[in-house]
Amino acid sequence: MKKLPILFLPISCLCACSTTNTKLPLVIMEYYFSSLVEVRLYDGSREDLREIPSLLDKYDQLSDNYHQKGNENSVYTLNETNDEVTVSNDLHDLLEKALELKTATNGYFEPLIGKLSKLWKESLKNKQVLSQSVIEEELDKINNSELILLDEATQRMGQAEIDLGAIAKGYALDKVKEYLDAKEEKQYLINAGNSSILLGEKNTKSGLFNVGLKYYNNAYLSLKNCFIGASGVQEQGVSIDGVTYSHIINPFTGSAINNYDFTFVVGNNGALVDALSTSFMMMDLKQIQQIEATFNVYSLVFKDNRMVYCNENLEVKYH
Amino acid sequence: MEKKKIRNDLILIFVIFALCISAIVIVLLSHRRKDNLVAKVYVRNDVVEVIDLSIKEERLYEIEGTEGYLTISAKNGGVAVIHSDCPNQDCVHMGYVYETNRPIICIHNGVYIIIVGKAFNDVEAG
Predict the structure, then answer these.
(1) A41, A110, A208, B45: which sits with the fewest CB atoms below 10 Å from its CB?
(2) Is A41 on the interface with B (CB under 8 A)?
């Protein structure tokens, strides 16, 4: 199994600058979850800032299904055995959240999609579509596997593997938000690889951040105090014979073909918007609207470079 | 006499050098400016298309105006209406526009095209 490199790149840097009128934000940029994570505090101390990478690092280690990072039992450990594994409370809570989100998304977020997802990635890397027989075999494994959370231990039953990639960044941002709330920090932006974003308030009168839509020319939204989850085929999609195959795999059909190009979900829980942005890629618009109403989240949906749905509470503007 | 010749040569070299530097600066600045421009296409008061002008290759956009269709071309940092269902074809006759202060207007179709600077986003989701 090809393993992703662990990248810890302390690119920068603490820059605290005080001038008479403007205070520049404190910024750290480092690699976690195989993504560049930018942490920006507009009105915090260096000490507060330094705690955030250790939180991100912890959940990166716990959720990684390609490498054993650190000494603690993690998703990787669970995938290596069908025995009971003693896990930390942090991993237990993360797995519990994963099962909760599976229910919330009507099964479109499947924590046991790991093996099928890996097989699709390997296949697409070679510009090949995964065969239907392999897909059916892996779906069968998923349907006959189970993740059992006990008080003292956790057990993965069956041959399917755990993959929390769709929620790990958002869940880590939830923990960062809890930390920032405890420190009474209000002005911040945490951007985990452009797909999971936590916004506080900007250091301006309105406090609003301009959130651009990377692949849609000059479209942006003005937002604050929310989590954003974004999923799309633009970064990791592979085109074979005119069909775009995604890294997002439908757990019911095993297909890597999504209904849309890009989904953008705004809400007040990081793990939830992360899971929903992934799940919405496979749902129809009616299902999306039902889930929006249930969980009080707002979304944008794009297909063929056009916005096909915009929740009435979101306003897309253009520069 | 010899001194004057040397002085004139030095002046000439200086002038040529200054012209070269100016030309380089102008080219760099104009290139940088074009990288940061977009053409906004309005139909009545609504933005219906935002065209990134940093892409050199020609792209065509079919826009539905209030009375008919227009075809907009964007290439090499400029934008033009190359076809319009309007009677007098003023918008088409303007040709390619590269400047921010020269809007293309098609009154018949309620279309207004203006080049503006790209604005700054705090974060890009994608």
Answers:
(1) B45
(2) no
pLDDT tens-place string over residues A79-130 = 999 999 999 999 999 999 999 999 999 999 999 999 999 999 999 999 999 9
Which among B40, B122, B125 is the nearest to A318, CB-wise?
B40
Percent of chain A with pLDDT over 70: 92
ipTM of the modeled complex: 0.83
A-B interface: how many C-beta pairs under 8 angstroms? 65
Q: Where are the domains of chain B?
A: 1-35, 37-117
**B52–A319: do the CB atoms touch at under 8 Å?**
no
Residues of B in contact with A189 (CB under 8 A): 122-123
| Degrees to nearest 5, angle at CA A56 with A51 and A62 | 130
Identity of the residue numbered A158: G
Q: CB distance B125–A211 less than 8 Å?
A: yes
pLDDT at A61: 96
- Taking all residues of chain A, what is their mean pLDDT, rounded to a whole number? 90
The string of pLDDT tens digits covering residues B47-57 is: 788 888 888 88
- Residues B15-53 as b or e (16 or more Cβ within 10 Å = b): eeeeeeeeeeeeeeeeeeebeebbbbbbbeeeeebbbeb
The pLDDT score that the predictor gives to residue B29 is 52
Minimal C-alpha gap between A29 and chain B (Å): 13
Mutate which of B53, B100, B122 to test chain A, going by most A C-beta atoms within 10 A? Answer: B122
**B37-117 belongs to which CATH class?**
mainly beta
Decide which of A248 and A49 is more confident.
A248
On chain A, the residues whose CB falls within 8 A of the CB of B54 are: none
* Residues of chain B contacting A262 with CB distance shorter than 8 Å: 126
Strand ranges in B1-126 using DSSP code E only, listed in sequence order: 37-43, 46-52, 59-64, 69-75, 78-84, 104-106, 111-117, 123-125
